[in-house]
Structures are given as structure tokens and as C-alpha cells.
Sequence to fold (228 residues):
Amino acid sequence: EAGVVQSPRYKIIEKKQPVAFWCNPISGHNTLYWYLQNLGQGPELLIRYENEEAVDDSQLPKDRFSAERLKGVDSTLKIQPAELGDSAVYLCASSHGTYKRDTGELFFGEGSRLTVL
Amino acid sequence: QKEVEQNSGPLSVPEGAIASLNCTYSDRVSQSFFWYRQYSGKSPELIMSIYSNGDKEDGRFTAQLNKASQYVSLLIRDSQPSDSATYLCAVLNTGFQKLVFGTGTRLLVSP
Fold:
């Protein structure tokens, strides 16, 4: 079974430029998460989807971040414009669980490491 | 007060010893608790989950939960150099349907 696939693995951009990350979850997983992880910190939730619905986007900085999961399968996270402080690893995860019955058992992709110069 | 607290370490243990990793959480309504392992440069992977008070054993790993003290721990017996990683404690608040991660404890197992 294929795992969670993310791309690109690495991205270097200058500040104020846009960037997009793509994620394809494990087949059959309806719930998809985007997390941000800074060095030496644990993952922090940005947005959670159940199918195509964003069920928790309370931590997503909506002035510059956007996400979509149009067909309830793969997802894209966009930052526009990027700031220096956005340098981090962006992790995508998926799970069997649902919003009302979260299992807490997440399967993570390899992450997309963003460096903003 | 952070929702999930861990000592960042590093925790250094010799090969063959028992490594003890600790985690405290602030929200009493939390129901489910998890340990994720993250190797350097890699993504987290789930290694243990525990839902009720007491111990849960899986091979060399034992998770311990004390809800009254709001305390979760992970014991790794016969530690191996390959266990060297950061161990993330995660707590699921079923009321808010939110999984919160701690900052992780870095474990170093020396040969």
C-alpha cells in the first residue's frame, strides 16, 4: 500500500514569492491534515479536511495561507506571499478517522521543507 | 501552560538500558494518548497508543498512563542505537477533536 505522498520535498524561494505544496493521502483515508513543524518543535495543525470539507482551519493564517481538497482526495497548500518566518517543514497526514470519531492514528508523508530567503 | 509538555532532552542512555520518556498534559478531558517516533529528517510515525489507565506493552515498548496525574510515559527496554530519535507525545482531546503534539524528547542511545 502506498503511503502519503508529498511534493516537492524541498523548496527554496525568496520572500514575497508564492509557493505550493501537494499531498496525496493513503487510498481510502477520508481525513487529511496539513501540519507545520518548526525545528525542535512538534507538529502544529494548520488545517484538517474530512473529504472535501475543511472541518478545522482555525490555526490557518488565512491572510497568506490557503488550502484546497477539491475532490476529497489530494490536496494543495499554498502560501502567498511567503515570509521569512514561514521557513519550516510542512507535513501532510491522513487517517481512517472522521471528525466525530478521530482515532489519533495519523500516517505522515515525508514532508516538504521550505526555506524562505 | 502548554497543552502537552515534554522535556526536550537529549536523554542519553547506554545500549541495553531502559529509556524512560515522560509527558504531561493539561486538559483533563483528554481520552487518547499516543507516542510518535521521528528520526532526524524524517516524518513522525506512530509507535504506541494508550486509552486507559495502566500499562500497555508492545515488544520492547511500554506505554503508561495515569489520568489522575495527567501523565503519560514511554519505556523502551533494551535500548538500541537504532532507537535514537525524537519521541513525540500526542494527546487527543475528543471534545475538540484535536490531536495536540508535544515538542518531543530527543533520545540518544550510545553503543
